[in-house]
Amino acid sequence: MTATVFEFIGHNTGLLFQLALFQLGVSAEALAISAAIALPLGVWLGHRHRGGVLAVNVSNVGRAIPSLALIAVLIPTLGVGRTSLLVGLVVLAVPVILTNAYVAVEGVDRDVVDAANGMGMRPREVLLKAEIPLALPLIFAGLRTAAVYVVATATIGVLVGTAGTLGDVIYNQASYRLEGVVAAAIYVAGLALVVDVAFAGLQRLATPRGLRSTTDYSRLENVALGATQQ
Amino acid sequence: MMLAAAPQVVIPNFGGNPHSCVRENHTICWGWLRDNWSGTLWPALRDHVELTLIAIGIGFAIALALALLAHRHDRVEHPVSIVTGIIYTIPSLALFQVLVGIRAFGLSRTSVEIALVGYTLLILFRNTLLGLRGVPSEVVEAARGMGLTRRQILWKVEMPLALPAIVAGLRIATVTIISLATIAAFIIDQGLGAPIRDALNNGLFKTELYAAAALAVALAILADLVLLALQHALTPWDRRDR
Fold it and tell me: Can you give the pTM of this predicted structure?
């Protein structure tokens, strides 16, 4: 079995690479759209200390939506294809990013904000120079979780007719046999790990130097965890 | 659309005599819902709850044992985290297919449950361990000073204090498994994924699609609320502004 899986990978390097690349592309697009929607909203709500119930619970509800059900519901309205997949991935990623951004900014030490105010910073400066830099590690934690989630879930694109992701192989055992399924699954898992590691690096880079050893990542673990599986 | 193990229905069969609403595939056909609740949707919902409960029960037992072990021996944590983390990133349908390929399991509930249990482990293990580690050492010291044995400290001090984190893990795991169990329909004809799959195969029959999807979401939210209420009931001392 193991031997035939590697044989499959050896014979289909090009195909698997191409599918993986496409999957990364769709995921990147979905993540960018989600971040554009969720980051400003989450940061603003956190800055104003408002809407906490909404911002936190939206991710619980978001997690409750089975991706299969979501995409199934999108098909009748948006049709079979790339748009359905993109919208589905965005709906799944927005809550994670939103909740994390909100918790991150909301949780910035009030004393720091008071100090910034006391130094004569304008509200805008307080946000841009104090709150956001301090919130960045946790904001990136949310982006990281969402990115892994989106990449792993993009596999189901084949169910909405977006040919081109690794799901093509996984959902087509008839043509590719079990070796192909396992090989593609290894690629998906690998892709998820690569994205995770890449975002972990970004997260570290985004952390202000003074915070590097003290950031409390465990604070977000409950929020962030659990979103990876499709 | 490649739906493994799904019956290939050529002629749309909406069950019984199709009303015009069903024939024209309106958004929601209440008549169809009434006629098919007891035969299709209710059994699917019941099976879904059953699949979830079994997976969470077994998963929690394993994760708890591993977490207790890791709490006592630090060496255990790293390998368990890595293995459960790898299981967690395997695409679910691929894992289902691999398990189905193993002769002893095949197209059975066992295959589904093994996969679902696998997906609970990372969340439950991590949260349980975090909960146990989060117990303040002064409290444990005080308990020891009062003469409690190691076992008493674990069950009377550490576990109760770790409960909020453990229940938080259970909530995430339960909601995740409810969502994932829909995919089990590609292997066995059970759970809310089955009507979703059938609706997809029957030319996107909207009523069944929306009804099953709504039931899955409602079930997940309900389960989340029930576990939250359970946590409040079990930790009366922890009633701050949550």
Answer: 0.79
